[in-house]
Amino acid sequence: MVQGSKNGKEYVIIGKGIGFAVKDTGVIEVNDQRIEKLFRLEDREEWSQYQILLEDIDPKVMKITDEIIGDITSQFPGKLNDKIYLALPSHIQFTIYRLRSGMDIINPFLQETKMTFPKEFEIAFKAADKISAEFNVQIPEDEVGFLTYHVYSAVSNVPVGQLVKVSNMVNELLEQIRTEQKITFEHGSMNHVRLMIHLRFSLERILQGSLIDNPFVKHIKKEYKTEYKLAQKLGKVIQSRLEVQVPEEELCFLAMHLHRLFQTIEKNK
User: Fold this and answer.
1) How far apart are CA 92 and CA 62, in angstroms?
2) Domain of 112: which CATH number?
3) Which helix (H) or strand (E) holds 26?
4) Within this chain, do residues 86 and 4 fall inside the same structural domain, yes or no?
5) Which pairs count as long-range contacts for 120-128, CB under 8 Å and 24+ apart, including other chains?
6) How far apart are CA 65 and CA 28, in angstroms?
7) Which of 146, 197, 205, 268 gets the most CB atoms within 10 Å of its CB?
8) What is the pLDDT of residues 72-112, one digit of tens each?
9) Is 77 helix (H, G, I), strand (E, B) or coil?
10) Containing H/E element for 109?
11) In angstroms, what CA-CA distances link 222 with 99, 104, 179, 198, 258?
12) Taking a C-beta distance cutoff of 8 angstroms, is the pair 13, 1 a contact?
């Protein structure tokens, strides 16, 4: 991975042997067969971060990063979010530093991450094995969860910071549902997983401003009054914490999931 320019614009060039070629000649042709990816960071701040990264990052980290990104691409064909080429090596290098310094890595969202993103978690698990073998460090499962965020971010274009924010919000909403209704549902149970996944992807849609049609709005508001009232309370929490408006369509979908949850719990009493 090196920095280059084309038509007066700066690009990041990725490919095996590219770095050595530039060191030898100072020049790499655009049609060089070793170029695997060419992308441009539009934001000047990102360029500054990338230049610092090139100076400070361990070349072995870049090598492992390229391998991991290759694994992601093989499982998720299509264009990845270019920011992974900055975010992932930085994360890996800092993780290695923390582990070698004896720092604990604690992931409060590990179980939710495993259940919500199973395919991404599997890729992250293999990535952790590669990092462990290359740097002789033991990667804990909590860190695999954080790596999973980077995998999902790369394929979904959802920023890692937003994933963390959503995870916090999901946990808060689940706790409020338990408290409001004085109910319990087993962690990892089907009820828990269904509601958790719905909340996560609903929050992502809300944050991205993606509207979703709900043809049952009138029916849900009429038939599921208790659930809709609770959904409205949860919507106010979301609005307060994330500073976004929650569409009525999303509130009604949430009410529908709450109705299913309450029915299932009642049947199992």
Assistant:
1) 9
2) 1.10.1790.10
3) none
4) no
5) 120/148, 120/151, 120/152, 120/155, 121/145, 121/148, 123/68, 123/71, 123/72, 123/75, 123/148, 123/151, 124/148, 124/150, 124/151, 126/71, 127/64, 127/68, 127/71, 127/151
6) 22
7) 146
8) 999 998 889 988 988 999 999 999 999 999 999 999 999 99
9) coil
10) none
11) 55, 50, 24, 22, 15
12) yes
pTM: 0.83
Token pair belonging to 83: 């920011």
For residue 136, give the 3-state DSSP assignment.
Answer: coil
Tell me the residue range of the domain where 8 lies. Answer: 1-40
- Both ends of the chain: CA-CA distance in Å? 59
pLDDT tens-digit series, residues 126-148: 999 999 999 999 999 999 999 99
Q: How many domains does the chain have?
A: 3
Token duo for residue 231: 């959904």
The whole-angstrom separation of Cα 35 and Cα 19 is 11
What does the pLDDT read at residue 121?
Answer: 98
Query: Do 148 and 127 touch, CB atoms closer than 8 A?
Result: no
| Final residue of a structural domain among 133, 157, 181 | 157
Do 70 and 103 sit in the same domain of this protein? yes
pLDDT for res 83: 86
Query: What are the φ and ψ backbone dihedral angles of 184, each rounded to 5 degrees?
Result: -130, 140
